Amino acid sequence: MSEMMADNENGRIGGELLSVDNITLRFGGVKALTDISFNINKGEIRSIIGPNGAGKSSMLNVINGFYKPQEGTIRFKGKNVNMKPDLAAKSGIARTFQNIALFKGMSTLDNIMTGRMLKMKAGFLSQAIYWGRAQKEELENRAFVEEIIDFLEIQSIRKTPVGRLPYGLQKRVELARALAMEPELLLLDEPMAGMNLEEKEDMSRYIIDVNEYFGTTIALIEHDMGVVMDLSDRVVVLDYGCKLADGSPDEVSSNQAVIDAYLGVAH
Amino acid sequence: MEALNALFVTPFVEIFDAPWFFMEVLTGGLMAGVMYSLVALGFVLIFKASGVFNFAQGVMVLFAALNFVGLMDAGVPMILAGIITIAIMVAVAFAIERFVLRPLVNQEHIILFMATIGVAYFLEGVGEMIWGTDVRPLNVGIPDDVFFVGDAMIQQSDLFAAVVAGFLVVVLALFFHYTRTGRALRAVADDHQAALSIGIPLNHIWVIVWSVAGFVALVTGIMWGSKLGVQFSLSVIALKALPVLILGGFTSIPGAIVGGLIIGAGEKVAEVYWGGFFGGAIEEWFAYILALAFLFFRPQGLFGEKIIERV
């Protein structure tokens, strides 16, 4: 807690970056999310937790535009948005997926380079002949990508097609691609699912480093309670599509409703 | 014994007896192969970027050629006719994206494939309605003399086709591998969702790739049209592209070229030296047998992306 106060004083955490207001999402008759509201502040690590089927991934999909909520609004940087995924990416939201969505036939380097797409502006013709602006851009962006590769320590797999990499490394490449977009808000959907303890520790370290060095705001979905409590500044808890609790890790973990949802209650 | 002799001895004796004639057959075959490559190229482009096998590619070749020759016959200068036809093909790309691909996004590939069959019939019908069904000769001034290298006779028009195809391929291969849009195309081919999440607008990419395929179709149509006249059987040459694709791999531009060369040269040589044994006309089916053999040993083709699967 005292650490968080210090962070606040250092100005790590700023004002509101994203706010979710009264979101309701239905699939036919099934309510995936019911009247959810919370916000994410600039620079914080914000976790969304909950049991299976609580609506965590749906929430993320609403934020970056894969799902359209029936009610409610999302405001990003103070602007009302009703986004398509590619527009979300343009406005500065990057994400990773629960089931890894990489371009499996491409090398690690090419995968990460795709993250730089939006930073490159050279025209069609210039690209076609790979001359002038296109060449300059390609080189500049390559340099940035190399920085990220160093940062995430994946130099040795630069040229490997990602389909061949083990699961843990694929997750890291996916993070690298998202980072290459220089996002303001990074959405991580279960970045540690299926990892062993060592890999989880590595991933936690990268998440903290990303947050500190790049100042990236991070919204995180995770099952591992230990990890969530260690990493997060604030936690929002969902259960059956409703918001159960919202607050600091300490507040949330001592909340009776949350304990009941996770451990079950005697009836 | 006699059969074995005819299969394994006589043809090779003939080849060594008349090497210049063999060269002539071989180059003729290679040049014809380039023409197949051009058709295959259109398939590869769309398959790479959308994972869809575009059944309409053959008809797009016909449709582009019809518009081009129709405009020229109506007195439009050649360059202008080319530009207008390109514009038409781009419009077709927009229409296909809007009315076919967009409503079917995230559907099974087989459904998209079926949709392209619909597109094929539609384009064929429209082409017929506007331009009629006559065979139209096309002359765009491709040189048509022959010249000799040693004792081998070579058609200038074949050589011209080879140069055009080679140029197209180099440009497209570079484009796919080293540019932002090329990377976007490959990304979309690989995973739609991931592509969206990094800010690639699927719709634009589809329009671009179908436009480029339309352009390739026009070039192909002009080359084939000059050779055979612009007629409805042009759309059937697409079938010849299938073995080329199986050989070269559905996702490889260089593969389309090498595959085309192998098919072209293979069938000519087979026809000339082995045709007699089988009673002739083996050119018709040789390519498919070759493709079948390839499927047994290398299903991803010569240059196709490796099939990687985790269990």
TrEMBL record, chain A:
Keywords recorded for this protein, A-Z: ATP-binding, Nucleotide-binding, Transport
PROSITE patterns: ABC_TRANSPORTER_2 (PS50893)
Record Pfam families: ABC_tran, BCA_ABC_TP_C
Stated name of the protein: Amino acid/amide ABC transporter ATP-binding protein 1 (HAAT family)
GO molecular function: ATP binding; ATP hydrolysis activity
SMART domains assigned to the protein according to its UniProt record, in alphabetical order: AAA (SM00382)
InterPro entries: AAA+_ATPase, ABC_AA/LPS_Transport, ABC_transporter-like_ATP-bd, BCA_ABC_TP_C, P-loop_NTPase
Keyword Signal: no
Residue ranges constituting the ABC transporter domain according to the UniProt record: 18-265
Automatic annotation (TrEMBL), chain B:
Membrane topology: Multi-pass membrane protein
CDD domains per the UniProt record, alphabetical: TM_PBP1_LivH_like
Residues annotated as signal peptide: none
A GO CC term assigned to this protein in UniProt: plasma membrane
Location (main, coarse): membrane
Family, similarity comment: Belongs to the binding-protein-dependent transport system permease family. LivHM subfamily.
UniProt-listed PANTHER family: ABC TRANSPORTER PERMEASE PROTEIN, BRANCHED-CHAIN AMINO ACID TRANSPORT SYSTEM PERMEASE PROTEIN LIVH
Protein name, per record: Amino acid/amide ABC transporter membrane protein 1 (HAAT family)
Organism: Aestuariispira insulae
